[in-house]
Amino acid sequence: MSKLPKQHKFLDLSDYGRPIAKAIANALKNTSITPIHVTISFIIAGLFGVYCVVQGYYWLAAFFLILKSILDAADGELARVKKQPSYTGRYLDSVADIILNAILFIAIAYITNAPWYLCVLAFFGLQLQGTLYNYYYVILRNKLNGDSTSRVFEKKTPIALEGEQQKYVNILFALYKFCYGIFDQIIYTLDRKASQSSLFPNWFMTAISTFGLGFQLLLIALMLNLNLKEFILPFFLLYTIMVFVFIAIRKLMF
């Protein structure tokens, strides 16, 4: 099952790894490998990427960061082709993402001798950007009856789906709320009525997909290899201004 009906798919700049992710999922469809195994593999790839950043192996860092993005898409694809959606996988994926993002930004701050407050603010901006993108994307998916494992409002612990245990859903949901609660609340406060709006047009979703984690990691990989590593943290801090721009566009036009 696709995340969106065919006629409403948009050019997602953060989802460049989807074709390879689908190929990986199809190759693993009839194996004993589960989506959770693929999630663990992207965690490992992300950690290798961070190690390469610290060691100054920027081409390798780029490889592992992009591989992480591809595998990040492959776990969901595998869940779809195996028809095994799970809240366990959904929350594990999100918790792993934010932890890896934090470690990556700490590594970038380390190699650039950036002040700690810049690292914290840039990380906060990065997560706020991603939260807005996910917020609008999940709203769109719910309106169009697409993939609904992700909910617009993550308020209550969901009931475990077939094949997963409630205790793991409870634990991972609690971790998710701890990691993402503040970002979800900020975005919801800024745009409470987004779920009541008309369908977001493709051009708008394409523009806001620059907030997607895949695109963010691609930018980091490029900046590392273009000798622009000192600008990574300031860029993501300043680009957070676009959160307010996109919200203003949404309120005025849709």
Q: In percent, how helical is the residue content?
A: 55-70%
Number of helices: 10
State the CATH superfamily name: CDP-alcohol phosphotransferase transmembrane (TM) domain
Instruction: Give the radius of gyration.
Output: 18 Å
Work out the strand percent: under 5%
Shape: globular
Label the CATH architecture: Up-down Bundle
Biggest beta-sheet profile: none
Mean of residue pLDDT? 91
Order of helices and strands: HHHHHHHHHH
CATH topology: Four Helix Bundle (Hemerythrin (Met), subunit A)
How many DSSP-defined strands?
0
What is the highest CATH level, the class? Mainly Alpha
Tell me the number of structural domains: 1
Keywords: Membrane, Transferase, Transmembrane, Transmembrane helix
Protein name: CDP-alcohol phosphatidyltransferase family protein
Transmembrane segments: 32-51, 202-225, 231-249
Family: Belongs to the CDP-alcohol phosphatidyltransferase class-I family.
